[in-house]
Each structure stands twice: as structure tokens, then as C-alpha cells.
Amino acid sequence: MMEIKLCGITRMEDAALAAELEVDALGFIFYPHSPRYISPSAAKGIIEGLTGKRPVIVGVFVNEEITIVKQTAESCGLDMIQLHGDESVSYCRQFLASSIIKALIPKMEADLDGLQNYPAGAILIDARDAERYGGTGKLSDWETARKISRRQPIILAGGLNEVNVRQAIEFVLPGAVDINSGIESAPGRKDAAKMKGIVEIIRTMRLPQDKKAVKIFKRG
Predict the structure, then answer these.
(1) How far apart are CA 220 and CA 96, in angstroms?
(2) What span, in angstroms and rounded, lies between the C-alpha atoms of 135 and 117?
(3) Is 126 among the catalytic positions?
(4) Catalytic residue chosen out of the listed positions 7, 14, 79, 178
(5) Which member of 11, 46, 120, 176 has the lowest number of beta carbons within 10 Å of its beta carbon?
(6) How confident is the model at residue 154 (pLDDT cuts 50, 70, 90)?
(7) Closest to 102 (Cα-Cα) out of 148, 146, 142
């Protein structure tokens, strides 16, 4: 079954609904320049307030100091760390590889070979613009993402919503999808109907029989 991560959580009600929908992971963005930024203390309050079966908790960082990432991960009880900036291979090696999601935007065919150098449990393919590292609402490069997914499991992000998510999954065949702006009424405020709608679409899709399920989101 396709794994689902809902990202940019800032409100308890959105996190609770996501858990009720049994999504696989929740993303909290600790990048101060993001319109979906949440402080570690606020995120901790939401995480601790979740009851029942809890999704895997992912903290999203952009070019942050390593000590701050580690402190935030410990204080909030993060299961995985998503590095969404220009973090180097050596930077990534400061963490347990299986706990790392590295966001990348490959631009050329030659970039594909370099992906295997990153010590990460998963690679996330997203779109970026001059001002934002993610959450742009723009589609990522599905063609390149498709090539990468033939080599290794990936998480597909970038402008996914109820209208295009089925097409994206069928074309790219990722291991998981990451939904953010496509389920919002405003940045950081999720729309309950859109959340329910997109999860239902993904959960009811029938993937090719030769598409092996891969566990991407893991508890620390």
C-alpha cells in the first residue's frame, strides 16, 4: 500500500484527523522562513496530545545547525529527520542514516548517480523556487522522479492534490507521497475535506502487482 505523509502540520485538529485517517507520517516544519513554521514547543504539545495509533513523526529542517536539529529531535520525540535544504553528504553523516529523509531536486541526468552518495533512509523529490525550499505548490519533475524510483524507493512531493495525485502515482510509482499545500485552506491550515478526499484516493488505488511495498516511514 502506498505510504502517505501529510506535512506542514501546525494545528492539533489537523494532526488528530490525520492520525484518525491512519496516515503513515506527519511532518512538522522547523524552518523559520516557512509560512508553515511551527516552534519546537508547539510541535511537542501537538505530538504529545495525539492518542491511539500515532503516525511516524518527521521534523523538517533547512540548513540548520546540527546541534539544534539533534536537540529538537530529542525534545519533540521525532522519529525521522527531513533535511530539506542544501545539506551536504558529510552533514547527513552526522545522523543515523535510517532516520534521515533527504530532499533533493535533481536537475540533470548526471545528478541521478550522486543520489546514492547520501546516507539517508529515503530520498524525497520536491520542487523549489527562488524564495522557498518547498511548499511551493509547484509540481516536481515527474520524469526525473520516475527514473529515480526505478533505482530506489522515493517519496514524491511537490504540488500534489486531489486532482493530480492519482496521475502522479501511476506515472512515477513512488514508495510514498508527501502532501502539503494541496490539502490546505491557507498555509498551515489543513482542510478536513481535502485531507479525507486525498487519503481515500490514494488508499483505494490499485498499484501494479510487481510494485513491491516498501516501508519508508520508520520509528526511531
Answers:
(1) 9
(2) 25
(3) yes
(4) 7
(5) 11
(6) very high
(7) 148
